[in-house]
Amino acid sequence: MSRIGKLPISIPKGVKITKQDNTVIVEGPKGKLSERIRPEIQVEISDDTLVVKRPSDIKYHRALHGLSRALIANMVTGVTEGFKRNLEIIGVGYRAEKAGKGVTFYLGYSHPITLIPPDEITIELEGANKITVSGINKQIVGQIASEIRSFRPPEPYKGKGVKYADEQIRRKAGKTAGA
Length: 179
What we know:
Elements: E1 9-10, E2 16-20, E3 23-28, E4 31-36, E5 42-45, E6 49-53, H1 59-80, E7 83-90, E8 95-99, E9 102-106, E10 113-115, E11 121-126, E12 130-135, H2 138-150, E13 161-164
Antiparallel strand pairs: 1-6, 2-3, 3-4, 5-6, 7-12, 7-13, 8-9, 9-10, 11-12
């Protein structure tokens, strides 16, 4: 039995979950999300809990069982609390600034990089070097944060670049330290 899949999902007050064909729709105070679930997986909704069940014990169904439960749990968390990722820009002259709907990054290249996020994502700046990406869809929040990090990944010698706030950069010694 999948340890993740067999856990019931508690439905908080103000959240409405419906199932239409193979689609689970979650509505809450922050918005509405939907996800297609494979037809083999059964979703049972009671008053304040949701249980995901699988038809057999083969490896494929076990994998879908845990995946489906995790996707639905993330949707419930997203419409109630939301998700956010914090990033930091490290380096002399490296900065970010709001430019209308988008954000412009100055990361040591000959040109600035402008990112216009999707409508469901908000990007907030604290000063010029702290970025917060937030939204209700965990996958899109992670994707946008990863895209921002990819503009200038942190390098191991001085640690310059864009990194997640909780990321540890493994530092390397330079040429002179080896002598």
